[in-house]
Amino acid sequence: MKKLLTVLLLFAAAAAVFAKDVKIDLKNAVIVVKTGSQKGIAEDLKTHLELIGGGKVAIVPASKIPAGKYVFHVGTAPKGTKETFKPEEGRYVITDKAAYFFGDPRRNQGISHAVYTFLDEALGVRWPSPDHITVVKRNPVTVSKTEGKFIPVLNIRGIRGQGIWNRRMRMGTHNPPQYGHAFTKWWEKYGKTHPEYFALNNGRRIPTSLGNRSGDIAQAMADKRLGRIIALCVSNEKVWDKIIADWKAAGMPEYVNICENDAPDQLSCHCENCMKLDVLTPEQQKDWTHALADRYVYFANEVLKRAKKYRKDAKVSMYAYNASQDAPKREKLADEVVIGVVPTNFTLGSLENYVSSWKKMGLKHFFYRPNRHYYFAMMCLPAGFEKHFYKVMKFMIDQGGIGFDYDSRKTLNPSVQLSDYILAKTMQNPSASFEESFKHYLDAYGAAGSNVGKYFEYWRTQVWEKRIVKNLDKITTLGAFYNYSRGLIKDIAPYYNTEDFVKAGKYLDAAMKTPGLTDDQKALVKRLVDFNEHGRLFVKAILAKNDNASLELLKFRQKNGLKVLHGTEQYYGDAAGVKRVMDLAEFTPPFIKTDLFWKFKLDPKDVGEKEAWYKEGRKYTKWKDVMATNRNWEAPYAHYKAISKEIRALTKNYDGIAWYATSVRIPADWFGKRSIYLYFGAVDESCTVYINGEKAHYRPYINPSDWATPFTVDITKFVKGNARTPQYITVRVEDKSGAGGIWKQVFLVSKEKK
Q1: At residue 324, does pLDDT exceed 70?
Q2: How far apart are alpha carbons 745 and 734 in whole angstroms?
Q3: pLDDT the model gives residue 321
Q4: Rounded (10°) angle between helices 386-398 and 434-442
């Protein structure tokens, strides 16, 4: 019997080895969809088959299949198939006559997974980014792997903002906890009738913000954005009861979602009962940052107790986010509380401590929902962090994480796309090694994949691992609130230099010369070449702080159809100067930024003009105070030590007249050859500009947008002396309401005389 079994096993192995390949003529194929809800899947299958085969593939009704056609059945299993499936399970079967894609029908996820598993493992399709599909064009196609299946292990698999790419990479969910900010509509519904549901701040239970805590009540209450992020009074039993009532009305699903709104830590409830639940160090009592988990765990446990009265297997889901990020010190989690962990620090050591501290307080079930977009909000650069985030994911899986929901952004950065790709492959198969997923990605580049891999390895090994990893805490601290991208841009010199791009670019030069690349593969490599050159120009502009370097970067973006200005560039200080050279495009470089801090003098009685303060020349240097010219005088940045506490107090709510004064020197080669101007980024509201004691310009506040509109003043005829002569600038600003002052910096600029 043992000998017969051996023979049978050998026969089965031989049958597998000599399994018949299936040859499909894609120009003689059609697609049949079982239900209308599967039409989108069929359309995308059609797109891929046409890219591969070079012809048209029609989608036809099952009742009108033309004779002799090869049929791709979407949503239908072969006859005799036992149709019981695990959650999200997808299968495909390929025969000589037809292909079948079937699986778990819930939300069609199984059918979708079947199609993309087939395209990936049987036809070699790759999706290296949300906007790229790479295929090997041929017809007919020969399919060697004629059966396949996909059964996901993780309950939650997703990277936000990636559209159809998520579906192609088999992202999805099964049996997930219900989560997401749960109370965003509460203020709209209950703000007027039940203000007691909401956080108490400054003696009021209304929507507010950190920068507007003593602002106008009516305006705050009407601000829908603030209403969506207002925190709750989580010690209030009426809140608990209302949550349970809403949950019961919704049919008592397994999970009660109590994920708090996206409120800043400091705007959690300040009522006595909520504060009694906190366990804070003296340092934490100053700003409450990440330190209020005790009150929120108490809240979760109380809601769970009430839910269990109606459903014994009820569970509660909450976020460890913002105020509740760090583990509680006293309150322990009930077993049925599931946490969406949202840490802001992504160093491995920090995450190990983070998860360990939560587990000590009872954490058993969690999913990982990081705000990872902080790592590349303005990253125009090769990042090199793909293996780091792979290790983070593997750690979270090893710790028992049931899934991943990355808060991210769609980006054209190939380096970030590589990281997302490897994370997606690891979510598909948590046992996959980094090297396996990296190779899978490089398949998209065909024979050029080897050199492309060396390009990415350069940034990972020479920049990320050698320079950045050991300084992650320093970088994120500089960026504030663990904003890695902002911190890196503020101090980029220790980590990136233009020579890096030259060295790494040699691998791309070799990749471009690879023979036999398809058009798709050439386009992908060319995209990397452009990306590398853009990164070089970006770093050059930051380091050089030179108008010509900024213009070179801007022109590259314009020439290559890239976004000329990223929204976060100004938020991060316009480090590469692109906004500056765009604003000053009509002038001839260089563009000279005047001092950030100008001498400053309040004129509450409006005597400055009568007393001719503008004629004081160098006497203005004796004015006691200074004020920044990149922010309104009511709220100069707190870290500007040059601005005295006394003048901050006087200008905090000041409406009236104030004077600014400084001096500049004109470059020698401008005299006689250029018209000379002052460019004011913005002044709120009206202003009069004096040069060397003479009135050069009056800019009244007429149009509603004048307070934010740039303007220029021709000062050519007011300039005196030579390049060594200081030119004195005095500006009288009148502000009648709201913010006031010179709040966007002033430049000395010029134009070549014709």
Answers
A1: yes
A2: 17
A3: 93
A4: 140
Determine the average pLDDT of the residues in 587-593: 94
Mean pLDDT, the chain, as a whole number?
92
- Considering only the C-alpha atoms of the chain, give the largest distance between any 2 of them, rounded to a whole number of Å: 117
Cα 29 to Cα 49: distance, rounded to the nearest angstrom: 9
The Cα–Cα gap between 323 and 260 comes to: 9
Please check whether residues 470 and 605 belong to one and the same domain: no
Looking at residues 59-75, what average pLDDT do you find?
95
Q: At residue 439, what are phi and psi to the nearest 5 degrees?
A: -65, -40
Residue 665: count other Cβ atoms within 10 Å of its Cβ.
Answer: 14
Give the per-residue pLDDT at 533. 97
Q: Which of 133, 151, 169 is the last residue of a domain?
A: 151
Range of the domain at 111: 19-151
CB atoms within 10 A of CB 598: 24
Task: Answer yes or no: is pLDDT of 246 > 90.
Answer: yes
Rounded Cα–Cα distance for residues 506 and 525 (Å): 12
Please tell me the distance from the alpha carbon of residue 328 to that of residue 363, in angstroms, as a whole number. Answer: 11
738 Rama sector, left if φ>0, alpha if ψ -120 to 50, beta otherwise: left
For 188-257, give the DSSP string. Answer: HHHTTT-GGGB--BTTB-S---GGGTTS-HHHHHH-HHHHHHPPB-TT-HHHHHHHHHHHHHTT--SEEE
pLDDT band at 7 (very low <50, low <70, confident <90, very high): very low
Contact assessment for residue 679 and residue 712, using Cβ atoms and an 8 Å cutoff? yes
Joined together, the tokens standing for residue 658 give: 């104030």
Mean pLDDT of 149-176: 96
User: Coil, helix or strand for 542?
Assistant: helix
In angstroms, the CA 76 to CA 99 distance is: 9
Residue 10 has pLDDT above 50, yes or no: no
Whether residues 184 and 106 share a domain: the answer is no
End-to-end CA distance of the chain: 103
**How much of the chain exceeds pLDDT 70, in percent?**
95
Q: For the chain, how many structural domains are there in total?
A: 4
> Can you tell me the mean pLDDT for 75-96?
95
How many alpha carbons lie under 13 Å from residue 114 in its C-beta half-sphere? 31
Please give the single-letter amino acid code of residue 326.
D
Query: SS3 of 459, please?
Result: helix
pLDDT score, position 214: 42
- Token readout for 542 is 């930051």
Per-residue pLDDT at 545: 85
Helix (H) or strand (E) holding 533: helix 519-544
Range with the lowest mean pLDDT among 51-55, 58-62, 522-526, 619-623? 619-623
Whether the Cβ atoms of residue 71 and residue 65 lie closer than 8 Å to each other: yes
Residues 565 and 624 occupy one common structural domain: no
Contacts of 111 (CB under 8 A, 6+ apart): 38, 41, 74, 75, 90, 101, 102, 103, 105
653 and 623 share a domain?
yes
Q: State the Cα–Cα distance between residues 122 and 170, nearest whole angstrom.
A: 15
